[in-house]
Design brief:
By secondary structure, the protein is an alpha/beta fold. It is built from seven helices and six strands.
């Protein structure tokens, strides 16, 4: 599969071959959905927590004697039917929402989404981005110029995939709304789906191959 390689000015440098085993995979929406659900569940934290009667403070002494008072028998003031008592079947922080997902399924879903970005013309292959200094204004100008040249609204929502950590680019991007950077070895389905456009550095393809295509 051929793709145009651009520089940061939006000028086409040459045509390059994209690995078909990564960028030319047929989409299986059911598999992608399963991986997305697993990823969101695995990142979910159980915050809501209620105390049952064993966790409530006090209530150790029987409120009144068992017989002879004319009232119903009770063993503790922390019973769920008492005001200030424990909660029956309430949410607890011990809940586990995680889902196990096979590596091959995650890899397959990732390649499918990458392929769909290429086929849907929501993919830009860049040679590199060089910044004279860490400045949001400079990065914003590059993204705007690139979007204008390629006739894509990159400011709408774009994920920039870096081959390795580049603090100049990362710091310059973080104040631009809806633009995010990620390292190629941390690429995942959810981050790609949360952004309309994907800007991929040429060197990041090799990292994706070495990390995921095993």
């Amino acid at each position: 599969m051929k793709a145009s390689l651009y520089n940061q000015k939006g000028e086409e440098i040459k045509k390059v071959d994209l690995p078909s085993e990564i960028f030319d995979i047929e989409l299986n929406s059911d598999l992608v959905h399963q991986v997305v659900v697993a990823q969101t569940n695995n990142s979910r934290e159980a915050i809501a927590h209620t105390k049952d009667r064993s966790e409530k403070r006090g209530g150790g002494r029987k409120p009144w004697r068992q017989k002879g008072t004319g009232r119903a028998r009770h063993g503790s003031t922390r019973s769920p039917i008492w005001r200030g008592g424990g909660v029956t079947f309430g949410p607890t922080k011990d809940r586990n929402f995680s889902n196990k997902i096979n590596k091959k399924m995650k890899q397959g879903a990732l390649f499918m989404i990458l392929s769909s970005k290429v086929k849907g013309d929501e993919f830009v292959l860049l040679d590199k981005i060089e910044l004279a200094e860490t400045k949001t204004k400079l990065m914003n100008e590059i993204i705007n110029n690139l979007g204008n040249k390629l006739k894509k609204n990159l400011n709408k929502s774009t994920l920039i995939v870096l081959p390795k950590t580049d603090l100049k680019i990362s710091f310059s991007v973080r104040n631009i709304p809806k633009i995010k950077t990620i390292r190629a070895d941390s690429l995942n389905v959810l981050d790609i789906l949360n952004h309309q456009y994907l800007i991929l550095f040429q060197d990041a393809i090799k990292v994706i191959k070495e990390t995921y295509n095993k």
